[in-house]
């Protein structure tokens, strides 16, 4: 089952908005144009039992708020997930053999009604609980949520719901857990329990002392409520040790948002392995908030993982979350005109304009490099970066060095890493760097020959155009000037290699670099020569 359409009317600045969400839907637009209003309208549909005047269009309560969610592709397996046979029967009776329906909520009575094939079924007695179980669970991560809220999370906190749901699902089938839950309930809820009897005695004693303070006939009841069993799964702590161990909620907003991102990623991983269970609708307000661009990309990857089982809506000002295409992704532009919010789907032909606007709206804001030099690993990246800063700060400025990850821990084959990094530059619809980018690789060893052959077959033009530069040695460390050269076994860890690369680059002379390391020097020269605006 999936949400196929959302219609919002008369909510704040939204007179009428009709959106056909994909599995992953991105809402972009300037501040104060209504992105959050759309999300809050959906939250109102799920949770509101009343509304204030300022939630109505033009702050006029006569403008009735309506939100309608349409569902399609309903499968028997969706109904089988229900916790009770009663709810299964109610949904089957309402739907018959139909595979779609909608749920409508109005501010006039704040009740939801159910519509099947255009026929308003009203809100039959007892159907509300079944529908609540049937609808995707809403998890709204808004900009106000901080980690200190999460660390004290309650049932209504979206991150808390995720964690509690995962923890419960992990242990709920354990026989030990089932027996423990029964004993817990008997201990605190059974009238014959010694603990319950003593708690009631305590409550009665407190009432006696309270009554003495209110002799005017005021009746005061004091009851010791049993602890919530579900609270046993609502305690966690996160610390950050960056020299001084600190509670995570005391760190900055960026760290807190990153930790919440990690919780979402863990939830996504668990959902992929989980069989059964209900679906979710995730909404994330200003998804990029406080996150570095690399963390934004990780967030998008995590959310796309979640979309294998659930639907995700995000609003953003970030081009990072927009620029990469995905078959399950749809972009919507939110724009306010004369105080009224309009939401329109962005077609592919308009996407370049959307990204351009997000990046500032002028060519100078795009900060595109003159060219790219792709190297295999971090040590190459560190060495060349230091060399450029020392000797070629002006000449090679604007040439972006990218490392493919060939020598990181748990390394993937280096040529495949280079391939993955080169594809976005050469394989996009408008590959402006295809004939300009330069690739610098180590001499392939015997285990890489097959992959090297495939790489050549895949990119013959790179070799024909002189865009590939190959070291004479199997590692950068062996290619350093003779007085600095080392064998691979002398530097095992990536941190050691990077530190040594920076050390060599800071000590050798410009003459040594150009004469003793001509392949790297020529790769830099080619990057400049083939670049936009050569210097």
Describe the structure.
The structure is a single chain. By secondary structure, this protein is an alpha/beta fold. It folds into three domains: 2-145 and 279-358, Rossmann fold (3-Layer(aba) Sandwich); 170-232, no CATH class; 371-529. It has helices at residues 35-47, 76-80, 85-95, 127-134, 147-151, 158-171, 175-189, 194-213, 253-273, 293-306, 320-323, 348-358, 363-366, 378-391, 414-426, 449-458, 460-464, 476-479, 494-507, 510-516, 518-529, and strands spanning 2-11, 14-19, 24-28, 66-72, 101-106, 112-116, 119-120, 137-141, 239-241, 245-247, 280-284, 311-316, 329-337, 340-345, 371-375, 399-403, 438-441, 468-470. A six-stranded antiparallel beta sheet has the order 2-1-4-5-6-7, covered by helices on one side. Strands 8-11-12-3-13-14 form a six-stranded mixed beta sheet, sandwiched between helices. A four-stranded parallel beta sheet has the order 16-15-17-18, sandwiched between helices. Helix 9 packs parallel to helix 10 and helix 20 packs across helix 21. The relative contact order is 0.09.
Defining traits:
single chain; 535 residues; alpha/beta; Rossmann fold; 3 domains; six-stranded antiparallel sheet; six-stranded mixed sheet; globular
């Amino acid at each position: 089952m999936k949400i196929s359409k959302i219609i919002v009317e008369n909510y704040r600045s939204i007179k009428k908005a009709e959106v056909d969400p994909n599995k992953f839907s991105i809402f972009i637009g300037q501040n104060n144009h209504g992105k959050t209003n759309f999300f809050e309208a959906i939250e109102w549909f799920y949770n509101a039992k009343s509304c204030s005047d300022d939630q109505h269009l033009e702050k006029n309560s006569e403008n009735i708020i309506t939100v309608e969610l349409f569902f399609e592709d309903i499968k028997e397996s969706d109904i089988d997930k229900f916790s009770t046979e009663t709810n299964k029967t109610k949904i089957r009776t309402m739907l018959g053999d139909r595979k779609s329906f909608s749920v409508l909520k109005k501010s006039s009575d704040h009740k939801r009604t159910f519509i099947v094939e255009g026929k308003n079924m009203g809100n039959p007695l007892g159907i509300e609980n079944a529908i609540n179980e049937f609808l995707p669970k809403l998890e709204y991560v808004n900009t106000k949520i901080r980690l200190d809220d999460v660390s004290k999370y309650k049932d209504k906190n979206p991150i808390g719901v995720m964690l509690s749901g995962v923890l419960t699902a992990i242990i709920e089938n354990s026989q030990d857990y089932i027996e423990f839950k029964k004993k817990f309930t008997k201990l605190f809820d059974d009238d014959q329990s010694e603990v319950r009897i003593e708690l009631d005695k305590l409550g009665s004693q407190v009432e006696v002392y309270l009554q003495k303070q209110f002799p005017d006939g005021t009746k005061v009841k004091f009851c010791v409520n049993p602890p919530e069993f579900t609270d046993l799964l609502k305690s966690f702590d996160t610390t950050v040790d960056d020299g001084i161990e600190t509670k995570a909620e005391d760190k900055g907003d960026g760290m807190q948002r990153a930790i919440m991102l990690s919780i979402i990623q863990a939830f996504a991983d668990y959902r992929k392995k989980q069989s059964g269970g209900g679906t979710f609708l995730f909404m994330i307000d200003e998804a990029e908030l406080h996150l570095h661009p690399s963390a934004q990309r990780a967030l998008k990857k995590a959310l796309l993982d979640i979309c294998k089982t659930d639907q995700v809506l995000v609003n953003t000002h970030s081009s990072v979350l927009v620029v990469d295409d995905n078959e399950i992704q749809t972009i919507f532009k939110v724009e306010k005109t004369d105080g009224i919010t309009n939401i329109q789907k962005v077609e592919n032909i308009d996407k370049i304009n959307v990204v351009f606007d997000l990046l500032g709206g002028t060519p100078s804001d795009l900060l595109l490099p003159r060219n790219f030099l792709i190297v295999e690993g971090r040590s190459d990246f560190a060495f060349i970066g230091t060399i450029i800063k020392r000797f070629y700060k002006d000449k090679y400025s604007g040439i972006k060095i990218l490392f493919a990850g060939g020598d990181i821990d748990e390394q993937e084959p280096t040529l495949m890493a280079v391939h993955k990094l080169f594809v976005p530059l050469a394989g996009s619809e408008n590959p402006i760097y295809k004939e300009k980018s330069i690739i610098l690789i180590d001499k392939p060893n015997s285990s890489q020959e097959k992959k090297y052959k495939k790489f050549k077959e895949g990119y013959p033009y790179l070799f024909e155009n002189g865009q590939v530069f190959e070291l004479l040695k199997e590692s950068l460390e062996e290619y350093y000037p003779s007085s600095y050269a080392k064998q691979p076994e002398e530097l095992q860890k990536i941190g050691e290699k990077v530190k040594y690369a920076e050390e060599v680059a800071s000590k050798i002379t410009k003459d040594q670099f150009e004469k003793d390391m001509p392949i790297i020097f020529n790769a830099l020269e080619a990057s400049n020569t083939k670049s936009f605006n050569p210097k």
